[in-house]
Amino acid sequence: MGRKKFDGVVEAVRYSPNGEIKWVRAYERRGPTFSDSLLLDRKTLMERLKDGQRYVTGRRLAYMASTFETGDTLRVLKENGREVVVVGDRATDRDWLAEVPIF
């Protein structure tokens, strides 16, 4: 079985008071390796997901360069006329990245 292909790994999230993602701390693929940690706002993350890039939850393993422990894939869903970012199968009316630490 091949390795999962993904364009970025979301390591932590910050939500605004209305339940939308404000920022995510992520790593992005740069050819065969990954970037240092980046802060992406909700608009940038949504654009990348809509462009077909695949982001997963996870964390970088210490002293292992571009090696990650990964989880679920982020998805954009339409709920009640709004677009929300979620992981897993949970239907919700706000952004929800289950098991992703809040920073």
What does this structure look like?
The chain has one helix at residues 42-50; strands spanning 8-15, 21-30, 33-34, 38-41, 55-60, 68-79, 82-87. The relative contact order is 0.24. The model has no long low-confidence stretch (mean pLDDT 92). The chain is built from 1 helix and 7 strands; from the N terminus they run ββββαβββ. Strand 1 and strand 2 form a beta hairpin.
How far apart are the termini? 34 Å
Strand content: over 45%
> How many DSSP-defined strands?
7
Oligomer: single chain
Please render the helix and strand layout as text:
Blueprint: E1 8-15, E2 21-30, E3 33-34, E4 38-41, H1 42-50, E5 55-60, E6 68-79, E7 82-87
Parallel strand pairs: 1-5
Antiparallel strand pairs: 1-2, 2-3, 2-4, 5-6, 6-7
Brief rundown of the structure:
It is built from one helix and seven strands; from the N terminus they run ββββαβββ. The protein has one helix spanning 42-50, and strands spanning 8-15, 21-30, 33-34, 38-41, 55-60, 68-79, 82-87.
Task: State the main characteristics.
seven-stranded mixed β-sheet; mainly beta; 1 helix
